[in-house]
Design a protein that fits this description.
443 residues; mainly alpha; Amino acid/polyamine transporter I; 16 helices
Length: 443
Amino acid sequence: MTVPRQTAPASRGHLLAVLGVGFGLAVIIGNTIGAGILRTPGSIAANLHTFWPYMAVWIVGALYALLGANALSELATMVPRSGGQYVFVRHGLGDYAGFVVGWSDWVSTCGTTAAVSIVIGEYTMRLFPYARREQVIALIVVAVFTLIQWLGVRSGSAVQNVTSVIKALALVVFVVACFWYGTRTPWTPTALTLHTDASLLVAFVLSLQAVIYTFDGWSAAIYFSEEVKDHGRNIPRAMISGVIGVAVIYLLINLAFLAVVSLPTIAGSTFAAGVVVERMFGVAGQNLLRGLVILILLSAVSANVLMAPRVLYAMAKDGLFWRGASEVNKGGTPDVALMISSLLAAGFIVTGTFETVVAKLAFFFVANYTLSFVTLFVLRRREPDAPRPYRAWGHPYTTGLAVLASVTFLAGATISDLRSSLWAIGLLVISFPAFMMVKKRAR
């Protein structure tokens, strides 16, 4: 059955097609690489105690992201509208599926903006004890990036490019320092903890969940599809090269850690980078690490402040949110959607509810990917002759593998965090009457 596409109503102003591959790379690096890569190695080392399984799980996580980037590149170039996965899930699976993906994506992106800004506030206070409360610092960070985006997409993209370059350079310096001061060969054997085949598989799957969370953000470029020049070529280039770039950085950081300390040393640590820095520079090195974290996270805030309004804008254009949010200012920014998104992020910061929101909606981020991959199968069958500037290589096998990995991840996530998963299912149940109410008001 063909799902009719609604014609988007006219809105004041329009998005500007002024972005290129460089911005796509910057927003992927900015959105993906956060504090997770400095924290997650400790939990993975607690499960996988030897070098090759430990590194293999990072490589498998990168391959999952690469398969996803391959599939989403086709969808983003076939349906080149800004707004993220909501756009093509709605196009392929209908309004309700799009509604669920759009709302969960928008709210979780605003929650992530709040969460990352709070971490910046916490680390700023540790560097400068005379600073005000972390909530105040977090609100200032959100306000500054909101103002930058309000000025227009050109200023927003320029700041994203600069902050992502600073992040990449800071991480390169950190990696070089680890190899310079480290005294170990990363693959030096450590004390073995014997696994049976079954226990190693369980440990690998649990670790892979953490790695996939750490890689999340690789799809950032698709939020700006209609704003990217020559999107048929530049979106796939940005997506594929962005995932490869992030994977290389992650592998280098892990090798750098293991050039300083062994896996048992960081096993179970909630902040593996802190253990590594203390081994190199003592307690005094913690301030250097705090500065590194702040530099890393600024580009993540910038990326999320850029992305969230695009989702709300697209939903408003399609009648799944207040139509006024489809307004675009002269600089090419969906300004009303930007203000609403930043106000929601600020609300999460003030009330301290961002952790709850992110935890409850974490279930949806792979569920949304799963729906996107299914959409590719649907559109290949339903619209075989539609223009496809980029065709996913290896489809249906590569896309099918991505679906299988996503379903496995969802099953593992449900089992490991049943409470949050039940919350997510409850939200899904109540989403349908909410959807019907929104549709009724739109009519």
